[in-house]
Each structure stands twice: as C-alpha cells, then as structure tokens.
Amino acid sequence: MPVGDAATWTGLYFGGFAGGSFGDTDFSAGPSGGPSFIDASISSSGFTGGAQIGYDYQIDNFVIGAVADIAYSDFKADISASAPGIDAEAEAKLQYLGTVRARLGYAWDRALIYGHGGFAYGKSEQTISFNGTEVYNDSQNRTGWTIGAGIEYKLTDHVSFGTEYAYVDLGSKTIYDDGNTFVDQDLKFHTIKALINYRF
C-alpha cells in the first residue's frame, strides 16, 4: 500500500556520510608508444567522507530522485623497494571523489531500498621518492561512472539514516610519460558508507 503523508519521501534533502573504499589499483608500464612490459595490481584502501544534496519524488510506493555528492578521500596504493644505498617509495592517492547520480527505489512506509548510478569524477595524485627525497609529483583529473544500491530509513519525518554500496570506475589514464617510459593507472574500487540526511 502507498505510504501515508507522514512518511512520504518526496522533497529536498541534504546530509553527510562517512565510510571506506577498497579494491586493487592496476598499473602497467612500458616504452613510450609501445606495449606494456610490467603489469601490477596493488591492494588499496582508504577513508571517504563528505556531503550530499538531493531530491526525491514518490509515486505510490516508487521513489525516483537525483543526488550529487562530494567527498574527501585517502584511498591509496603504496609501493616500496630497497637496494643497497637506495630506498624507493611510490604512492598513488585519490584526493577527492564526486558523483552525480539518479536513484530509483521502493518504499515500505519509513524504509526505502534503492539502486543508483551515474557520473563519477575525482582527482588522483602520484608521488615518487628516493631516500626520503621527493623526485616526482603529479596529479590528474579523472572521470568515469558508478553504480550501486542502498537502504534508507526515516528515523523521524525529517531525519533519515542509511547505508550505501557503490562500485566506481574512473578509467585508465597515463600518469607518467617522459618520452621513454610510460606508466598507466587503472582506477576501479568499491565504497561502503553510512549516511544521514535532513529532509524538508
């Protein structure tokens, strides 16, 4: 049965969220203009937290909407190697992550289960150090897509709490090329977060 007015999901909302990201960061390297001769997959993880704003519209038990969010991220992959007289370290980090998504869900009174998907963007940064001295630092803007699902529950008529899963694909991008050697990074990962919203 359709929900009553006291529990309607129609309206504007804003809120915050926090959670974690995890996955494998894939790297490939080789001569510039040629095929890769090194391929590596590095286990990566990190914290994510930020804010969102959105709007939902309810038709009977179905809820459609759109949401945009932006989050700080420290999702990163670390690589280190040592040889006599040399300590080398490399880090690849996602500095922030944003999305603009559509949502489609089904409501049972104060509970809402939904799927979501849309555009994702962020900024990645890479650093390389030898014996504690940084010798390389660069960043790239990244774009891609995301898809996932979540559940949300209205604690009161204006406050809702939920949890959400997303798969994020920010694609493959060349992060280093000095004319002799290239390094590509393929950035795909999962996120799980808890969220709270205030609904008008």
Give short descriptive properties of this protein.
single chain, 200 residues, mainly beta, eight-stranded antiparallel barrel, 84% strand, disordered N terminus
> Helical percent range?
under 10%
Shape: elongated
Give the tally of β-strands: 8
Question: What does the main sheet amount to?
Answer: 8 strands, antiparallel, barrel
Strand order in the largest sheet: 1-2-3-4-5-6-7-8
Distance between the termini: 23 Å
The DSSP helix count reads: 0
Structural class: mainly beta
Give a verbal description of the structure.
The protein has no helices and 8 strands. 26% of the residues are buried. With 200 residues, the chain is mainly β.
State the gist of this model.
The chain is mostly beta strands and 200 residues long.
What is the topological layout?
Elements: E1 11-31, E2 38-59, E3 62-83, E4 86-108, E5 111-130, E6 133-154, E7 159-177, E8 181-199
Antiparallel strand pairs: 1-2, 1-8, 2-3, 3-4, 4-5, 5-6, 6-7, 7-8
